[in-house]
Specification:
There is one protein chain. With 197 residues, this protein is mainly alpha-helical. The protein folds into two domains: 40 residues, Arc Repressor Mutant, subunit A (Orthogonal Bundle), CATH 1.10.10; 128 residues, Tetracycline Repressor, domain 2 (Orthogonal Bundle). It has nine helices and no strands. Helix 5 runs antiparallel to helix 9 and helix 7 crosses helix 8. It is globular and about 60 Å long.
């Protein structure tokens, strides 16, 4: 049976969610699909290209419309959307962070942040640094959160993530970053706009 590219990506996400990133190999994916691993190279030149496509699909599945409002509201929504998309799949944060770091894909959140910050009138250099800083915070927080949750569910550590690994902690941390960008941009920091204090 022949598979189209999107079928391979969809099945790769299923394998990722069932076995984790470490076990998402071309050999396993081929076996799951009932084809030789070499057949997958018709769609993807190498494993890294496949992983980039998987990361992009995970992000696309988590996309929601960016709300109307000023740039702090928009970047907060984009970052929350990114976190939710990564946490929806086993090892999703690690996958997206790796693909992004290698420059292979997962650019949609960065591009969305740049668009929101630029529309807010921030200086071009600040826009790029702020977008990368926001991404680093979200990728790092989600990666730490996901690792803790998965270790807890496997019984490796107590299954109590505590307040360090929950949505409220993320929102406060994100608000700190957004407020720092506001200050750097010369805008006043207003109470409560970018998350709970």
């Amino acid at each position: 049976m022949s598979y189209r590219r999107h079928h391979v990506v969809e099945h790769a996400i299923t394998v990722l969610d069932a076995y984790g990133l470490g076990d998402l190999s071309m050999r396993r994916l081929g076996a799951e699909l009932g084809v030789q691993p070499s057949a997958l190279y018709h769609h993807f030149k190498d494993k890294q290209t496949l992983l980039a496509a998987v990361a992009d699909e995970i992000l696309a599945r988590g996309e929601r419309p960016v709300p109307e409002g000023d740039w702090p509201d928009q970047v907060t929504a984009i970052c929350a959307q990114l976190r939710d998309a990564m946490l929806a799949y086993r090892d999703g944060a690690e996958l997206v962070a790796t693909v992004s770091a290698f420059g292979l894909g997962a650019r949609a959140p960065y591009d969305a942040l740049v668009a929101a910050l630029s529309a807010g009138g921030l200086d071009d250099r600040l826009v790029r640094v702020a977008a990368r800083t926001l991404l680093h915070f979200v990728l790092g927080h989600a990666g730490d959160e996901q690792t803790h949750l998965q270790a807890g569910s496997a019984g490796a550590i107590p299954d109590d993530p505590g307040d360090v690994h929950d949505g409220a902690d993320f929102a406060v941390g994100l608000a700190i970053v957004v407020d720092g960008i506001r200050v750097r941009a010369g805008a006043p920091v207003t109470g409560g706009r970018s998350g709970p204090r």
